[in-house]
Design brief:
The structure is a homodimer of 268-residue chains.
Chain A lengths: L5 H14 L7 H8 L3 H17 L4 E5 L5 E5 L4 H15 L5 E2 L3 E2 L2 H4 L2 H14 L7 E5 L4 H11 L3 E4 L10 E7 L6 E7 L8 E9 L3 H12 L3 E11 L11 E10 L4 E6 L1
Parallel strand pairs in A: 5-6, 5-9, 9-10, 10-11
Antiparallel strand pairs in A: 1-2, 3-4, 7-8, 11-12
Helix pairs in contact in A: 1-3, 6-7
Chain lengths: 268, 268
């Protein structure tokens, strides 16, 4: 390759890092790719870090030692995240989102990739200390959020299904009580999807009584995995007593006043 | 903001562009954000373009005029894409993926965000001329791929469901014949999900006879939308006659030899 200017190299380095959140690249990998000495690469990494920090676009971490390298961690200031969520709460509170049964229409928002990508990054930023190795969700509406939380952590998603599918080999299944409807339902996971002792973060779009989330946690534990956390796009304020203990949510839905067509929802 | 070095500004510009594929940013937006004159910004944009092109990491387009601006288009050389798909075909052909019923286990791959992101970019690159405004898929396994194709095009996803859900308001539904099982099934779409005359690209993970894809196309047309294309992760070679006409696929599955435990699959 012809000699490339430093600026072009730093652009390429930025793209590779930010496109692969949490992925650790060895210095050797980049030195070879860019045909530069380690000292030159170190300066380039510092430039990327400075540029991202100056504009609140995330953090670059370097890890020393033989197993070391460089990686990008998506994050924004608390203020920027709050502004983003407050703006989104206004959209969620639009009266035409009111559906029968005390629910709100939100599928359109949960299927906008740019928006969900940011939500996934916010959840990952808040739950980084949990060090999950897998994201678990249940079909269907929480899948995009689960995928973008997983992207931010550079880990895979496993999906539980409401019924076992013949296309996925042998499955483990459990019966669980849906907290809202009090009905007994079945949830299944392909046996090969989750290694035992894996650290699992449960993600779903909506949590009311917590029955589905509890089902997922039980299913994960059934295959020997460890549930390290549960996070939701929206959790309702009522019922106050949930079927799961610790959880986090991006929004709390306090009330839907169908008569006056008002939705009371705010970032948590 | 204190005066920031050019290098840092170019890093931030790179991040913003590559994080928002296809999104057109006005020059004014960046001039204001970076507090620079338009001539300076133009030089910065040229630097980002040169860096990405030098390492085959995508393209930066500038559009002139009042409605103009700058945007990032994810793409790689045909050679790089072919290498990526050939590598993935080897993984798909692992004998332990053989399931009963002439299917292969691929959910693990379809739920790895980094991998699916690249697949989404390849599909978007190949189908750019179709100019879709919406991606349509049906629950469940094709959702991550649909979301990443949508991300690459900067458009939303609409999801058809096998049964109408009470949480999504009024729905349009159709009955369709599943090509493989010959059974009559129902598929539904929330009425508000898709505006009429929208240009829709149908995405799914697996296509055998094409019954499900045909159902999606009919459902889209039922609400007045226009289906501009259909793309799949895997299409089977048999049956040769499909229930849909034009389509593209990343892989063609030629044969599963359960006796000798061999999967014959290759990039298309």
């Amino acid at each position: 390759m012809a000699r490339v200017k430093r600026m072009e190299r730093v652009v390429a380095l930025t793209k590779q890092l930010v496109d692969h959140p949490y992925q650790l690249f060895s210095f050797t990998y980049f030195c070879k790719k860019f045909e530069v000495a380690k000292s030159t690469l170190s300066e380039d990494v510092l430039a990327v870090r400075a540029g991202l920090e100056a504009y609140d676009l995330g953090r670059v971490e370097t890890l020393a030692g033989a197993a070391g390298g460089v990686r990008f961690i998506p994050c924004h200031s608390e203020k920027a995240n709050e502004e983003f969520l407050t703006e989104l709460a206004l959209q969620l509170a639009e009266p035409e989102r009111i559906l029968s049964g005390g629910m709100i229409y939100m599928t359109d928002l949960l299927f906008k990739p740019q928006l969900v990508m940011r939500l996934g990054e916010i959840i990952a930023q808040r739950l980084r200390h949990l060090e999950p190795e897998y994201i678990m969700t249940v079909e269907t509406r929480g899948i995009p959020l689960a995928v973008f939380v997983a992207r931010a952590f550079n880990i895979p998603v496993v999906m539980a299904r409401r019924v076992g599918q013949i296309t996925e080999g042998s499955t483990v299944s459990i019966n669980y009580v849906s907290g809202s409807s009090k009905q007994i339902q079945t949830m299944a996971l392909p046996k090969r999807a989750l290694p035992s002792s894996a650290r699992v973060l449960v993600i779903d779009d909506f949590m009311k009584a917590g029955g589905t989330a509890r089902g997922m946690a039980e299913l994960a534990e059934e295959v020997g995995a460890k549930v390290v956390g549960k996070a939701f796009f929206i959790a309702t304020q009522e019922p106050e007593k949930k079927m799961i203990d610790d959880y986090t949510a991006l929004f709390v839905l306090k009330d839907i006043d169908t008569e006056n067509r008002k939705i009371d929802i705010s970032p948590l």
